Amino acid sequence: MPRRMPDLSVYLVTDRLLSRGRALVDVVLAAIRGGATVVQLREKEGSARETLELGRALLERLRPLGVPLIVNDRVDLALALGADGVHVGQGDLPPEVARRLLGPDALVGLSITGAADLPTLDPAVVDYAGVGPIFPTGSKADATPALGLEELARLRRLLPVPVVAIGGITAANAPAVIAAGADGVSVVSAICSADNCEVAASALAQAVREGRARRASSPG
Ligand SMILES: Cc1ncc(COP(=O)(O)OP(=O)(O)O)c(N)n1
Ligand SMILES: Cc1nc(C(=O)O)sc1CCOP(=O)(O)O
Ligand SMILES: [Mg+2]
Fold this sequence. Notes:
By secondary structure, the protein is α/β, with parallel strands linked by helices. The chain has helices at residues 24-34, 48-62, 75-81, 95-102, 148-158, 174-179, 189-192, 197-217, and strands at 10-13, 38-41, 69-72, 85-88, 107-112, 128-131, 163-166, 184-187. The protein has a single domain (10-217), classed as TIM Barrel. Helices cover 38% and strands 15% of the residues. The chain is globular, with a radius of gyration of 16 Å. The structure holds ligand LCLJCK34, ligand 3NM and magnesium ion. Belongs to the thiamine-phosphate synthase family.
């Protein structure tokens, strides 16, 4: 039986350093009230113990809301938390290893930074692709060059799994990102650094709907 895919429309990737001093749980809950559909816990600085505690606090609030929690990079923490899945990049544990450790029900996401990464994605193993960066981003120091919308559209046609686009996405450009073929938008700063995280997530959700309407009405 295939794994149940969550709604990838507005996929929040957390960053405490970009959250302007606000508590992570408050940022995440506000984003969900606004319409975020998936949350990825991305902690590049803290200790494993700290990330585990944050993950526990998030899971306690997300479970009743039915919003999946994905852990960035750390398969061990995803397993320890009983999180819904893990997101790995090209330099992280291979998706096959993540799948073997987490089992058939977990969500496994893989980063795709260009066409050269396509052979690394086995749809029997990986549930969705995070394609990016689409636009330049200040939220990831080691980001690869921006792909742009035409390359996103090309990669989307070649990828056998749902795609969330990531990197420099805002409510202003999200309709074009969705119209180019992405199934959802993944953001850090557009939500974490916003004056009002709920309003920001709601604007992104509206932008995704607008992009889908644009795609549905475009010829071909
Ligand atoms: C949804 C999503 N897509 C891509 C990434 C980037 O993952 P990775 O390339 O492993 O880089 P880090 O996030 O680990 O710095 C992501 N996290 N989420
Ligand atoms: C975590 C991450 N991964 C990327 C990739 O291209 O794989 S870009 C990125 C940061 C995205 O932050 P923002 O929404 O603020 O631009
Ligand atoms: Mg990674």
